[in-house]
Amino acid sequence: MKHFLSRCKDGWNRFVEKLSEIEFFRKIGITYQVLWNLLLITLIIGLLSAMFAGGAAAGYFASLVADEPSYSEEDMRTQVSSLTETSEIYMANDVFLGKIRSDVEREIVRLDEIADNVKWAIIATEDEHFYEHEGIVPKALLRATMQELSNASMQTGGSTLTQQLIKQQILSNEVSFDRKATEIMLAMRLEQFMSKDEILEAYLNVVPFGRNASGRNVEGIEAAANGIFGVTAEELNLPQSAYLAGMPQSPYGYTPFTSEAQVKDEDGLRPGLNRYRTVLNRMLEKGYITKEEHEEALSYDLTADFAENAPDPMSKNPMLTSEINKRATAVLVQQKIDAHEGWDQLSTTAQEIERTEFLEQVENAITNGGYKITTTIDKELYDAMNEAAQNSDSFFGAEKQGQREQVGSVLIDNNTGAILSFVGGREEDLDHQYNHATQAYRQAGSTMKPVLAYGGAIEAGVTQPGLVIPDTPENYKAPPYEPVNNFDQSHKGNLTVRESVIQSRNVPAVRAWWHVPDSLKEQIRDAAGFGAGSNRVPLYESAAIGGGHVTVEQMVSAFSAFGHDGVRNEPYMIEKIETYSGEVVYEHQQKEYTLFSPQTNYLVTDMMRDVLYASNGTASGVPRKLNFSADWAGKTGTTNDSFDSWFIATNPDVSLGVWNGYSGEKLISLDDRISGMSTGARTQSIWANVANAAYSVNPDLMTANGKRFERPSGITEKRVCGLTGGSSNKVCDDEGLVTTDLYASDMLSRIDGLSPFQSELKRDMQRLINEQREKEREERRPQEDDEDEEESADDEEQPNEEVNSNSEGEETEEEEQEPDDEEEELEDEEDAEVDENEDEEDEEN
Q: Is 210 in a helix, a strand, or coil?
């Protein structure tokens, strides 16, 4: 080989020498050598310049990215995969309500859950060399750079899908050379860490698609498919896929919907449809679709597929959505507080600072964290009850001082504390979001009596349903010592506790409250749910008759204890909160609070039955208004000047309460009568309408499947004199106070001295007995005088008959002793009654 090359070289030299002998070629050779040398010099200078320029560019590029952090594979994967997703609300039985309002709506979806046409349409339109390049396309970058430097009117852009993903997830939208340089560097690095399919999946989950049919901003192909066409990303056909694939270039220019959730007019739709045709043409050019598919897609009527106006839950059910959002936030904030070590050792100021930070974190997580929030609200019950309240206009008064009479109602499951439904007001829209069921603190009126006054008194062993607490003039014991008034400004004398409950008398309730130990008052108040927060019910005398401020939810929750053997379950609305991947971050844990023993609970509940079913009960008209029958126990309540009106009732399964009144800052009285109906009757009619609506949805719930309140052991039925607790006597018979009623068995042996009122009542009883005997003596005296006259006449006729001088005196003495003897008989009778009660107690035990 070496010899061959040497021969070639010698031959070439001889050829050149011969040419040089010729003058013409000699001149050309000189020119050639000059040109060649010039060419070599130019090439060397060009190469050196290129190397210098390249070095400078490399140095400049390096300087642009010098301050950028060094991203590891884990860092980049984490940031690229860190996708915000809109949280969803689900009602009971997994019924979807909607998405919580946020700046952007997004749903995460896997690549295999996206139609293939979408993938090819995006690649053909946004990055035709996606599966070939390593993060960047130099030619496209050079073209984009030249267009930028020349300020060309038509700029095609040079970003690959990878670069767009980097810009969306890691960098900002800032337009600068250093950001672009960082984007290029990170795009090339990301290609080393993630597969093409992983990058494409991430891109399709973050890219913006304008607005949906609700007028809300959407990002990600799943949210776009659902919000624009009403289908999933997997269900998209070719025309729909091509239309969506064209939108990322100008999301708000190509979107078919306005911010008011309306379809754009023809001119507004034209840019998006033109872009749609461009996408189809590119898909055809790249061979992703056939000519037939192309022509069929061009003739497809896309506008017919646009989703109908679909308002978000905040627009449709703003009060419900707001309440759920507020409660979900509260439970997650409390979760963070519970997990904070040393929380109780922090100062109040430090706690507030921490609480504020927790609140911001939770609000952001709920808005953008893609949570699935499951609630206890039954959608059908909610709709039916709210419709019933809105259809009860005939029971509401006229607008006063710019305020509309409002209503609040809550339905609670006694066995769990789950809030099944509520009515927050007479209307529900974005302008009326104040929730009168859970936010409005109002005076409870007489609905508080069974809980604090009579429940407390019976639990304390102060009284029983068949015993008397007088309804007579009385003053409060605390300044300014004003009279305790009844609603009718009168008094009915000696009434049993049962009658006082039935007729809703105030004086006996306050008197009962006086004799409940303070520790028991506080225990019952807190267990009933009235002891927390700034609206804690104070333990004043007026608390017995509703002097504190409570919400409808709180009152119904307290009454739920009567339907659950005296045990109240904490009311709740948030059942569970999960991440979009299914991880449970919160799940409700039941909390129970014992108000009363089963015996006390049943006695109070049985008295409240008569509020509805006794002829003189304050809610005796309710059963006739219901479309069904059930074992209800309830209580009415009206506050001073009729500012508030209440009716709350419970059955063995659920409790339902209604409040109505004017809810403005200034207290306004309800009308005394509307259409011939009193204030209380109107409230009870609203309650019946709401109950009937709930029954139409779930009959078993409202009838408790036919169950009745079960009498627990330790309850005895006994006939006694309500004044004394003993057996009958003439005065009790005349006063109608001999009753057969229910008593706690362990109280039978001490009924005689049970009530603080019994000693006073027994003195009154003795006084009445003495008055009765004196009256009988007065009635006998004329007859005795006649007999004396006859005896005198007989004595005159028989003067010799011996007269016993002491007989009249003895008779008088015997008469004078008669009351004492009769008192002894009464005491003996009562002692015998006590012995009888003790015997019955032994038998019961």
A: strand
Q: How far apart are CA 642 and CA 644, in angstroms?
A: 5
Angle at 264 between CA 258 and CA 270, to 5 degrees: 125
**pLDDT(8) > 70:** no
181 close to 64: Cβ distance less than 8 angstroms:
yes
Q: Are 684 and 635 in contact (CB under 8 A)?
A: no
d(CA 531, CA 524): 9
Closest CA relative to residue 252, chosen from 205, 287, 218, 295: 218
CA distance 547 to 524: 16
Burial of 822 by CB count in 10 Å (0-12 exposed, 13-18 middle, 19+ buried)? middle
Coil, helix or strand at residue 300: coil
Token couple for 122 = 């995006």
d(CA 59, CA 606): 90
CB 329 within 8 A of CB 362: yes
Please list the residues that pair with 655 across neighbouring strands: 412, 650
Q: Report the alpha-carbon angle 410-411-417, nearest 5.
A: 105
Secondary element (H or E) of residue 120: helix 116-126
Q: Measured between alpha carbons, how far is 660 from 277 in angstroms, rounded to an integer?
A: 60
Say which residues have a Cβ less than 8 Å from residue 515's Cβ, sequence separation at least 6: 457, 460, 462, 756
The pTM assigned to this predicted structure is 0.75
Q: Which of 206, 277, 233, 248 is nearest to 117 (CA)?
A: 233
End-to-end alpha-carbon separation of the chain, Å? 126
List, in sequence order, every beta strand (DSSP E) within 508-587.
549-550, 567-569, 574-578, 584-587
User: In DSSP terms, which residues pair with 637 in a beta bridge?
Assistant: 646
Q: What is the DSSP string of 753-814?
A: GTSTTHHHHHHHHHHHHHHHHHHHHHHHHHHHHHHHHHHHHHHHH-TTS---TTHHHHHHHH
The residue count for the chain: 845
List, for residues 539-553, the tens digit of each pLDDT value. Answer: 999 999 998 999 999
Q: Angle 491-493-498 (CA atoms, 0-180°, nearest 5)?
A: 100
607, two tokens:
């008295």
Cis previous bond, 480, omega within 30: yes
Count CB neighbours of 590 within 10 A.
11
Residue of 372, 365, 374 whose CA lies nearest to 333: 365
As beta bridge partners, residue 468 has 496
CA proximity to 333, closest of 104, 590, 585, 593: 585
Task: Extract the tokens encoding 109.
Answer: 């979806």
Give residue 259's identity as a one-letter amino acid code: S
Instruction: Tell me the pLDDT tens digit for each residue of 422-435.
Output: 999 998 876 667 89
**Which pLDDT tens digit goes with each residue over 359-411?**
988 988 888 788 999 999 999 999 999 999 989 989 999 999 889 999 999 99
pLDDT of residue 215: 83
**215's tokens:** 């007028």
DSSP letters, 375-388, are ES--HHHHHHHHHH
Token digits for 402? 């710019």
Alpha-carbon distance of 424 to 439, in angstroms, equals 9
CA distance 579 to 86: 11
Residue with tokens 């009445």: 768
Angle between helices 291-298 and 238-245 (to 10 degrees): 80
Cβ count near 403 (within 10 Å): 14
CB 661 within 8 A of CB 405: yes
- For the chain, counts of helices (H) and of strands (E): 29, 21
Most confident by average pLDDT, 12-21, 107-116, 824-833:
107-116
d(CA 407, CA 424): 7
Residues 6+ apart with CB under 8 A from 403: 662, 663, 664, 666, 668
